Amino acid sequence: MKEKFMKFRKGGLGQLTIPLIAIAILILFNLIRDPGFFSIEITHNNDGNAVLAGNLISVINGASELAVLAIGMTLVTAACGGQDISVGAAAAIAGSAFVKVLKSGPSISGGTVLLAFLCACIVAMLFAAFNGVLVAVFKIQPMIATLILYTCGRSIAYWINGGATPTVDSPIIRAIGRFIPGVPLPTPVLIVAGVTILFMLIFHFTSLELFTQSVGINGSAARLNGINDTFIKLLSFIILGFCVAVAGCIGVSRLELINHETLLLDVEMDAILAVAIGGNNLGGGKFKISGSIIGAYVIQILTTTLYAMKVSSTDVKAYKAVVIVLLVVIGSPVIKAKFAKLMARGRSSKQRVSMKGAK
Asked: At 1, is the secondary structure helix, strand, or coil?
């Protein structure tokens, strides 16, 4: 049994301790405050379809864009030892490109939606590649390099549609942003599951995870072992660009319009926090995608809890900041090291007691 535990721990269970404890505490707090807080009910939406509803569904649905962005942010953080603060602005650009293609024809068909999504991916990945070149080739610190797009990205999104905020009234777009007829779960939740499975398969059948961690831990050593660290860093940004496009398209589909000023506004900080809460080292190296996804849901549960407690929207950020600072500090290497020492002392004390008893 002990060997199995150590195997799980080496496999990353220890890294997930903080986010799992955080979720458990939030769930317990809400159940004490309101036993029916996480109850799920079946209701009918405006189209007359039976769908699942409740705070739990709202949490997993509301965190969809953040969870997808956290996946890409984790790879950039692991490979480059820094964060991309332009993902919100880049999502606005991708969303604007998505809508531009959708509005280019007389009607919106499945083929048009697919073409629009591919265009959004290409646009987002090109802008992400621009950030990646600055970081990987010119060795600019990621937060400084991405500050350029953070500053001008929403203006570019504004220009794409000529300053307008066009709506996209289509059953297909409505199904992407809300519910597919006959499916009770919100479509964004299914998209997150699909993206997660995609990355699980990529990590399983390729060496991307190993190469990313190697470059993040020691780029020079990775080069000596034949790993192209410049390519891995650039690739991590391009993958983040794909995640940005997915998140931007989900955001547009939810509202059925593009608003370059408000689409995923301030999501950058939440994405970075999701990575941190997930137990990943913000300085690069070893990472766990599942930790970042759990971190995204921790942030969303916290937000939903605060709104349920009638906390005003202006105060929510302050309360979130306090809780998140506590989580990040508890999960910091210093606290982890001290906790490990205490555990080691406890184990050695037990061994001494057992040895005395044996004598």
From this structure: coil
